[in-house]
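Exercise: predict the fold of this chain.
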Amino acid sequence: MTADALTDVAGVRVGHATCTGDGWLTGTTVVLAPEGGAVAAVDVRGGGPGTKETDALDPRNLVQKAEAVVLTGGSAYGLDAASGVMAWLEERGRGVRVGPDPTHVVPVVPAACVFDLGRGGDFRARPDAATGRAAVEEAAASGPGAPGPQGCVGAGTGAVVGQMKGGVGTASTVLDSGITVAALVVANAAGSVVDPGTGVLYGELFQGRVRYPAAEVHEAALRRLAEASERNAPPPLNTTLAVVATDAGLSKAQAQKLAGTAHDGIARAVRPVHLLSDGDTVFTLATGTRPLDAADPLALNGVLAAGADVVTRAIVRAVRAAGPVDGPGGAWPSYEELYGS
C-alpha cells in the first residue's frame, strides 16, 4: 500500500518548516535521503534560478551522492536554510569524508529557492539556517513512508501560480518492474496552471480526468482573479521546483537524464514555462535498492516517462491542496475556492 507520495521511495523523508503571521508567508522543505545519501543530479531550465551546490551534481564531478535537498522560500536569501541542514548532518557525521576522523565530513546539500519575498507583508521575513534545521528535524522525526501535508506548507507557504495560490504537492507510481518513481513539487509559477477558456487545470487535461466547470463559475473565477491582479504586485520572479526520487539503481548521468525529462511534467501543467522570470529546477535522488534490468538497454525509459507523469500529478495536487491567502502582502484565491473540488 502506497501513500502516493515522495516518501513511497523507501528511506526518503520529508519535513517542512512553515512561517506565517506578523509579516511572514514563507518556509522551507527538506527532502532527507537515507543515511549514506542517494545518487543525485539536477537540471535547471528556468532563466532566473536561485540555487546552491548544483555544480557538485554534475556527472563529470567528484561527488556522487547527496544527503538532502533543500527547497526554500525567500529567494536567494532563503538559501541560507541549507546551512542549518548542513549543520544538522555534520553533527551526525553524515557527508563526504574529508579527513581521518569520522566527524571530518562535508555534507552535500543542494538547494533551490522560490521567490515569495514580501508576500506576507514583510520583505525581510525570509527563511534562515534555523528554518532549515527545523525542517530537517521534522523530516528525521517522521515515520517511514509518512507522506506529510500538502498545500501551503514549507517552501509552498508563500507560493503563487499566476494570480492563484500555489503550494507543495506530491505523487508516486510503481512500475511493472517494481521500481517506485515519485515527485514532490513546489508550484510557484509565473505562468498559469489553468486553461483560460474553461477553468480546467492543464495537468488534469493531460491526465484525461476532466470535469468542466459551469460557465458561470468560470466567469466568476475570472472576475476574482482580475480583482486579485489589480490588488497584488505583479509576480516578477517565480519558480517551480521538484525533487524526483526513485529506488532504481541509477548512475549520476542517468539521474541527470531523469531530471531533464521530468521537466516535461512541468510543461504539461504550467503555461508558459521556463521563462526568464522562472527558476525552474528539478533534482533527482536515486537510492539504488532496485537495479535496472541489465539485459534491457532501454530499461531507463520507463523511469523517465514516470518521472514526468508524477511531476504533473504533483503540480495538480499542489494547486488543489492550497488554501486562499488574504493578508497585508496580497490576496491570492485558491483553485478550490474558485472552482470547487
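Check your answer against the key: Residues 300-321 form the longest helix (22 residues).
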